[in-house]
Write a structure and sequence with these properties.
about 240 residues; alpha/beta; Rossmann fold; 2 domains; 6-stranded parallel beta sheet; 3-stranded antiparallel beta sheet; 8 helices
């Protein structure tokens, strides 16, 4: 049974294009991370088994860059929408730029790079912020620590929770994602016909059905859209 649509609820589904405008590299663009690193070697369980030192080095560099990055105008505009809406951010990004901009409800479906976790089934989790993980750095059960991110071949987190949020939203903003990473990209299909759906992207050739497409930079388009939605809320009768 589908949840009831809440017209004061706004769900943001964000991808690496938002973080890119804060200086963090994407994965699939022409200058993206997968052009200089083989994902099989640095972002898969098999790569971890083969060469954990290389995996840790790759994510230690990404973690440091993410920790020093600054939220941009798009992150700040998304956070500002909480003044009028129940905002839930569902992000493919592993950085904390949404939280640092002020968003209070953020679901990380691909994990969080500011955390480490044990590599055993117990999955003990630790906040390490921008610090590196070293070989020989263990959790209480003696397992080697690894980044708390979802690798290729691992199960995406909070997928059903995210789907229910999108299905109950009166407004859905899709921003900074190519919608090419599955199963997460399929979440957008859960948006209801009655919901207002807007896609802000530089690179999606075929927007999802029912989505209004705004082509351009998130830092330029999202603040304008947020201002419009906030003004509409102010104009609504109490």
């Amino acid at each position: 049974m589908k949840p009831e649509v809440q017209f004061d609820k706004l769900v943001v589904f964000s991808g690496s294009g938002v973080s890119a405008e804060s200086g963090l590299p994407t994965f699939r663009d022409s200058d993206g991370l997968w052009n200089s690193h083989a994902w099989e070697e640095v972002s898969s369980p098999r790569g971890w088994q083969r060469n954990p030192e290389a995996v840790l080095a790759f994510y230690n560099e990404r973690r440091l860059k993410a920790w020093h990055a600054v939220p941009n105008a798009a992150h700040q505009a998304i956070a500002s929408l909480e003044a009028a809406y129940d905002v839930v951010v569902i992000t493919q990004n592993v950085d904390e730029l949404h939280e640092r901009a002020g968003s209070s409800q953020v679901i990380h479906v691909h994990g969080e790079i500011a955390y480490a976790r044990g590599s055993s089934e117990a999955r003990r989790r630790y906040r390490i912020e921008g610090a590196p993980i070293s070989m020989g750095q263990l959790c209480e059960d003696g397992a080697q620590l690894r980044p708390d991110v979802v690798w290729f071949g691992e199960e995406v987190q909070f997928l059903e929770e995210a789907r229910l949020h999108i299905a109950s939203a009166g407004k859905v903003l899709v921003v900074g994602t190519s919608l090419s990473v599955f199963p997460v990209a399929s979440l957008v299909k859960a948006a209801r016909g009655r919901a207002e759906k807007v896609l802000v992207s530089l690179g999606v050739e075929k927007p999802p059905y029912g989505c209004k497409c705004l082509r351009g930079k998130a830092t330029e388009l999202v603040p304008a859209l947020a201002a419009q939605w906030l003004a509409e809320d102010n104009d609504r009768p109490n």
